[in-house]
Amino acid sequence: MENNQLKLENQICFKIYSAEREITKLYRNLLEELDVTYPQYLVLLVLWEEKSVTVKELGQKLFLDSGTLSPMLKRMEGNNLIDRRRSLEDERTVIISLTKKGEDLKNKAQCIPSKLLENLSLDMKELKSLNQTLSSILNRIQQKI
Amino acid sequence: MENNQLKLENQICFKIYSAEREITKLYRNLLEELDVTYPQYLVLLVLWEEKSVTVKELGQKLFLDSGTLSPMLKRMEGNNLIDRRRSLEDERTVIISLTKKGEDLKNKAQCIPSKLLENLSLDMKELKSLNQTLSSILNRIQQKI
DNA sequence: TAAAATTTAATTGTGCACAATTTATTTTAT
DNA sequence: ATAAAATAAATTGTGCACAATTAAATTTTA
């Protein structure tokens, strides 16, 4: 009896795993000029929208915990991209905000989304269906956890 | 002027990045019983198909380099899942094969693919389109590199 | 055939990612 | 008011992931 279920080529999740890493490599090239990693770029995306957020809020938006965020934010602070300060109302929470340098990086980043989509060269139909499918996967999984 | 391109919610790649990690978490639960990580499970999938492969071949199949594979394979050897030996014909190459324990793990793994798909609860149509889109993304990216 | 180039793994160093624990603070329940 | 519970972030420890370098073996080429 064949064992197709356990064949690598039939693993849909292996494709997601591989695609994620290949796409991150594409980002790496584009982000080199900004001198940030892809996860750091995600933090910047949030801050370009929100001005300031707590570590907890960042974690909720990016699905990352403090074990990942704390050292990463420390590195970003070291690179002068963000400021970190304790909230005055609640000394437990840490508020993250952009420095001038982090703020200014937004201009350089404007071209990144379109350049990346160009590299992927998906047509509109594929893009839409991929978007929908991933969203529904994420919704389903997150409900279970 | 709005800046929709840089909004987090519009980042298709963020969804792939998030989905990859959420799916890996689902695997983590299923793989706990086998006492292997997801990347180690991928190595096992290859070996259950092939009996023995070189580190280079593994890297080509999984899109991983020796910097990732060498220490991981050493851990798997330490857990008695695989054997590593230098090829006699070409002393540069290292041949990876399953131990009895690694071989036997295949039985326990039989249920994993179906359990995982159940967790994702995608319908056939979604699964097919996701599969196609990811394959074409992977093809396109890999041609560029 | 000996030197140069190539190939294969391993190593080194950096940066996530996450489970589990710890520390400090705030909230709640007595 | 205070002890217990809950919350937020940091820390610790393990395991990828990858760029860059190194070391050893093989192949190519002059």
From TrEMBL, chains A, B:
Signal peptide: none annotated. PROSITE patterns: HTH_MARR_2. The gene is ohrR. SUPFAM superfamilies: Winged helix' DNA-binding domain (SSF46785). It is found in: Cytoplasm. The lineage of its organism: Bacteria, Bacillati, Bacillota, Bacilli, Bacillales. SMART domains: HTH_MARR. The keyword Transcription applies. Residues 9-139 form the HTH marR-type domain. It holds the Pfam family Staph_reg_Sar_Rot. This is Organic hydroperoxide resistance transcriptional regulator. InterPro entries: HTH_MarR-typ, MarR/SlyA-like, Transc_reg_Sar_Rot_HTH, WH-like_DNA-bd_sf, WH_DNA-bd_sf. Keywords: Cytoplasm, DNA-binding, Transcription, Transcription regulation.
